[in-house]
Write a structure and sequence with these properties.
139 residues, 29% helix, two-stranded antiparallel ribbon, two-stranded parallel sheet, globular, 5 helices, alpha+beta
């Protein structure tokens, strides 16, 4: 996981609108998801989702927020995965699963300081038809 100072990261993000922010390249996209410790431990050990009480039911991600919990005027997409897509997301698509809890805990104490670090994320360039289909803004 690449990291950078939060103060720099926010200068690289669209300030408002509907965007997908991610650490990505042409082949991969990093997804961050919070799970309870049992699910997280099983996922890291198995390098797949499915153990520790993980349920293949619809999932969604929260809207975008600043590190201190304030809502951002920028909106993050909420993915509702179900059925075959959720199964493939959980079992086939992960290239690696890593528990970044220690990093998050360490950064929590740095919120509001210039020492706060965050994963490097940039807006994902979407084809206009894809952006229109999901209601995303084109940047």
């Amino acid at each position: 996981m690449q990291i950078e100072p939060y103060a720099h990261a926010v200068t690289q993000w669209p300030p408002v609108g509907r965007h997908i922010l991610a650490q990505h390249d042409a082949e991969t996209l990093i997804v961050y998801q919070a799970f309870n410790p049992a699910i997280a431990s099983a996922a890291v050990a198995d390098q797949r989702l499915g153990g520790g009480g993980f349920s293949l039911t619809r999932m969604s991600w929260d809207p975008d927020h600043a590190p201190d919990g304030r809502a951002s005027p920028r909106r993050a997409i909420q993915l509702g995965l179900r059925g075959e897509v959720l199964g493939r997301f959980a079992q086939e698509w992960p290239l690696a699963i890593e528990d970044i809890t220690p990093f998050v805990v360490a950064q929590r104490g740095r919120v509001g300081t210039p020492d706060l670090q965050v994963p490097v994320e940039r807006a994902v360039a979407l084809a206009p038809d894809v952006a229109a289909r999901i209601g995303a803004d084109v940047h």
